[in-house]
From TrEMBL:
It is a multi-pass membrane protein. GO terms for molecular function: transmembrane transporter activity. This is MFS transporter. It is found in: Cell membrane. Its main location: membrane. The keyword Transmembrane helix applies. It comes from Streptomyces benahoarensis.
């Protein structure tokens, strides 16, 4: 029997108590990276139309156009991106795409702070 496992009174193996995941550096890096990676794409479809409505005083048609144009890159680039993803290093591609998305999403508040935000 593996020494990392203990035996319960019923005789079935149970895992030995391990240290907290919050003290594991690899877990923290994964957790922070995945959290940051998930936050932008989940918040942007909600925040951008609200920003257009509140700050730019956009109308219903403009907000619906903004939302539908947000799906345009998926329609245009999905197939070529799939071909490209099969031919290059996926890790580098993932990092480059995440950094590009970070810069695009970060450009919205920076543009708003400079007073040049338009629809």
């Amino acid at each position: 029997m593996d020494m990392s496992q203990a035996t319960s009174p019923q005789g079935s193996p149970t895992e030995a108590p391990a240290g907290s995941l919050w003290r594991n550096r690899n877990f923290l890096l994964l957790w922070c990276g995945q959290g940051a990676d998930t936050l932008g794409p989940r918040v942007a479809p909600i925040v951008l139309p609200l920003l257009a409505l509140d700050t730019l005083h956009a109308g219903t048609f403009q907000i619906s156009l903004l939302t539908s144009l947000g799906w345009l890159p998926y329609l245009l680039f999905s197939l070529p991106a799939g071909i490209l993803a099969d031919r290059i290093d996926q890790r580098k591609l993932m990092i480059a795409c995440d950094l590009g998305r970070l810069l695009l999403i970060l450009s919205v508040p920076l543009t708003a702070l400079s007073g040049r935000l338009t629809l």
